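Supplementary Note 2. Why include the ligand at all?

Several targets in our set were suspected to adopt different conformations when bound, so apo predictions alone were not considered sufficient. For every target with a known small-molecule partner we therefore ran a joint prediction. The input for 4-(N,N-dimethylamino)cinnamoyl-COA is given below.
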Amino acid sequence: MAYETIIVKISDHVCVITLNRPSALNALNSQLVEELGDAVTDAENNHKVRCMVITGSEKAFAAGADITEMADKSFVEVVAKDLFGSSMMPVQNAKKPIIAAVSGYALGGGCELAMMCDFIICAENAKFGQPEINLGVIAGIGGTQRLTRFVGKSKAMDMLLTGRFMDAEEAERVGLVSRVVPEKMLMEVTLEVAVKIAEKSQISVKSAKEAVNRSFETTLAEGLLFERRVFHSMFATEDQKEGMSAFLEKRDPQFRDK
Ligand code: DAK
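The joint prediction is reproduced in token form.
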């Protein structure tokens, strides 16, 4: 499909979606959000894709929702269109893993998009923030909820109430990102990680993702039961037999997603 605000490339079973509105630091306007949703949906439906990466430019992953587009909207308009409601669902509901590769600014909706992904790898120049408070609004695509789960109440309140940015070192220390790498290495490292995930059994990958996400929605007892039952169900797969046989035979497993 021809996109104007994103670039989509697929290789080695990894779909890389690059946000591409450099003149506005990849601010999320409605066209970009729609195209991103379509690209993620296509990747979900493409059996060649086994992992996705969402990234931006060296200067900005995304500097937030597009303020130019939002500034004059009325309450009735944003409610009627459910601004950032259903349009973000493809990313939030993806079954395949999505890694956010963040360089530069990930602010407002940009930080929220990164947090919607399964995990974040960032460059040393990354800056995360929810500066909506400076615009007379609050985070609206999950910032108050996901950031709090990532970094705890105190840091989340600090960021959401002051609008301050968090650098890469702090982001790694508090668990917002999984790894920090030099800017020039960001895509190389992220693609290595994505290819590694793509090599696993897709049944295990999707199940692990589902189980981790379940931990945010339920009690510990229910989550542990869910995990255990999913684990049990793996014994119905050929990939479980292959994975364990390969270990015992001291060879690499050949998973077939069956
Ligand atoms: N929107 C539109 N344009 C933006 C933008 C944004 N968020 N961020 C940057 N730009 C544009 C700038 O206007 C500038 O355009 P020109 O003037 O060249 O035409 C260009 O990108 C380069 O930006 P700067 O000249 O400002 O570059 P600097 O290096 O000096 O500064 C910066 C970089 C990232 C610190 C600065 O651009 C900045 O503070 N940007 C805004 C960051 C921000 O406030 N982000 C939060 C946006 S609000 C909702 C759900 C969610 C939301 C809202 C509603 N509902 C459910 C209803 C979400 C809201 C947000 O995300």
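The chain has a mean pLDDT of 97. Residues 158 and 222 are 32 Å apart (CA to CA). Comparable summaries for the other entries are listed in the accompanying table.
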